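Q: My labmate handed me this sequence with no annotations at all. I'd like to see what the chain might look like in three dimensions before we decide whether it's worth expressing. Could you predict it?
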Amino acid sequence: MKNIIISKDSLELTLCPPSFEDGYYRGTRFDHSGIFRRIVKDGFVYADEWFDKYNPYAHDAVCGTSEEFGESGYEQAEVGDVFVKPGVGLLLKEDDAPYDHFKLYKVADPGRWTVTCDEDSATFVHVVDSEDWGYVYEKVVRIIDGAHYEITHHLCNTGRYNIEGEMYNHNFFTFGDARPGPEIEIDFPFEPCGNWRAEYDSVALSERGIRFSRPIEKGESVFMGNLKSSDGSEVTGEVFSIDASGHKVTFGADLPFHRIAFWSNHRVGCIEPFIPYCLESGDELEWTYTYDMK
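A: Here is what I predict for the chain of 294 residues:
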């Protein structure tokens, strides 16, 4: 399927249309709307493929700014029943195992997608018609100027059951050939705190961010799942910035995050802000992410 390319001034975004038949990403983890393939500003590649081997069905075969919603209805569903994953559709519960967002689930109903675009924006609308788990979801990726783009969202629950969980943005910025290590600095507008998954000699929290003491080697990864402000305050507005050898991305949002995850391997260091949500039947939610690139 042909990619969508939108641009303005010196900023160009390559996006992939949603399709379970021939789309770039055909997994059941990430939101299929506005799948990023490549981000280029002034000829410099800010985001591209970061994995060693591409597989359209792999749970993480996505690039750039990729989003995921939590599932709803899985625990209540009987084996053989469906549950909902916004941005993906209705999925089939195949066994009694706990939900695993790395697993490739069978798609019971992919819903209907409508995609429209112009020179500097692309709009993705996903409609799932279900009496129990229906929704209408719209995402607009828009370039503001040569240094800024934004992603706006609107989700409406048209079914009878609550759609609830956490949604987050997995920021796969590659910064050309940069590798996570001392050349990459991650900063927050607050003093961070949290617990590492293990004891690492490669990375640590600083007073205002995350710093690497050495490059992450291939086969290594580091993770913190509960990063937040040390004073317990909610985080909104500017959330983080990543600086890699003179190239910088600053991310902001208009809804508060209750926690942030950080994950890095030898190729990408990702900040993942999480927003909780609960939409009863008829409820709607709107939110916007902003990106400032230097």
